[in-house]
Write a structure and sequence with these properties.
Blueprint: E1 20-21, H1 22-29, H2 33-42, E2 49-51, E3 55-58, H3 60-75, H4 80-87, H5 106-125
Antiparallel strand pairs: 1-3, 2-3
Length: 126
């Protein structure tokens, strides 16, 4: 996590290195606050600052880490365990299950080819 770039999720006028509340981060990532609290339990490297009343404040490095977790779990299809392993450097291969059924006829082959092409274009866009 040596990337020193500032988080790019926010357009709220705060300095890029400003601390973010759990509400601000949840809104920027498009997840609910309880998801971020769950990730804190599941990813030991995620440790936001906690102040009075257990209010959480996420540093820029915490924001980058949550962006990575969100990408792995919600876009790349990793399980929590798999995403944790990737972030801890164990490098588990991404899921490779083919969601398209086996082809039965030549007509199915054309549809399958079109769906595969669409899937590949979407994957390239991410």
């Amino acid at each position: 996590m040596s990337d020193l770039r500032a988080p790019t999720l926010f357009a709220d006028g705060k300095a890029p290195e400003a601390l973010r509340t759990i509400g601000e981060l949840a809104e920027a990532l498009g997840v609910r606050q309880h998801v971020l609290r769950y990730w804190e339990e599941q990813f030991p490297m995620l440790k936001p600052l906690k102040r009075g009343g257990s209010r959480r404040y996420y540093r820029p490095e915490d924001v980058r880490l949550t962006e990575q977790i969100n990408r792995l779990v919600h876009r790349e299809g990793y399980t929590i365990k798999g995403a944790r392993a990737v972030l801890e450097g164990q490098g588990i291969s991404p899921p490779v299950a083919d969601p398209l059924p086996q082809i039965e006829s030549r007509a199915d082959f054309g549809i399958r080819s079109e769906l595969t092409a669409i899937r590949n274009r979407l994957a390239a866009a991410l």
